[in-house]
Amino acid sequence: EAGVVQSPRYKIIEKKQPVAFWCNPISGHNTLYWYLQNLGQGPELLIRYENEEAVDDSQLPKDRFSAERLKGVDSTLKIQPAELGDSAVYLCASSLFGENTEAFFGQGTRLTVV
Amino acid sequence: SQQGEEDPQALSIQEGENATMNCSYKTSINNLQWYRQNSGRGLVHLILIRSNEREKHSGRLRVTLDTSKKSSSLLITASRAADTASYFCAAYQTGANNLFFGTGTRLTVIP
User: Fold this and answer.
1) CA of A43, closest CA in chain B: separation in Å?
2) Residue A61 CB partners (closer than 8 Å, separation 6+)
3) How confident is the model over B4-42, as pLDDT tens digits?
4) What is the CATH number of domain A5-113?
5) Could you tell me the pLDDT band of residue A100, with boundaries at 50, 70 and 90?
6) Alpha-carbon distance A23 to A89, whole Å?
């Protein structure tokens, strides 16, 4: 069974440009997370979906970040416009619904803004 | 924002020794999870301990949880060079139903 798939793996863009990341979760997983991870730090939650509903986007900088999960399956995270400080690894994770379930992570997208 | 802190930030040991990492968190939780991350890779789930459990074992891993102190520890026994990685605790927050990660411990096992 395929794990969580993210693309692209790496992205280099100039500041002020838009960028999008794509995530395909494990089949049947209702819950989908987007995290941001800076070098040497732990993942920081950006948004959590239950099916197609964003149930917690309180940590998402809504002036430049947006996300969607159409049909409750794959998801896209967008930044427009990107800033130098957005350089980080963006991680997607999915899990079955419920409190005592583990999260499965994709390999992440490493974004470099120059 | 990080919801937990781990101690130490970095740990270097000889192969065969035990490694202990500690985690403190801030809110009430349903469970506490530990993950491992190799350099440049995604996170891999290691073990989950529920809030009503005090200790759990899985292979060479032993996890303890003290909800009164809002702390957990991960013990890796008989370490191997392949255990070299970053280890993160993650608190599943009651009510919010979100998984919040700590700052991580970078473990280096010297062959």
Assistant:
1) 6
2) none
3) 788 899 999 999 999 999 999 988 899 999 999 998 888
4) 2.60.40.10
5) confident
6) 13
Out of B1, B41, B50, the one facing A100 most closely (by C-beta) is B50
The band of B1, judged by pLDDT with boundaries at 50, 70 and 90, is low
Look at residue A75 in the predicted model and tell me its pLDDT.
97
Full set of structural domains in chain B with CATH: 4-110 (2.60.40.10)
* Interface probe with B: pick from A7, A102, A111, most Cβ of B within 10 Å: A102
The answer to whether the CB atoms of B48 and A100 lie below 8 A apart is yes
d(CA A64, CA B15) in angstroms, rounded, equals 46
- Give the end-to-end CA distance of chain B in Å, rounded to a whole number: 36
Boundaries of every domain in chain A: 5-113
CA–CA dist B84, B81 (Å, integer): 6
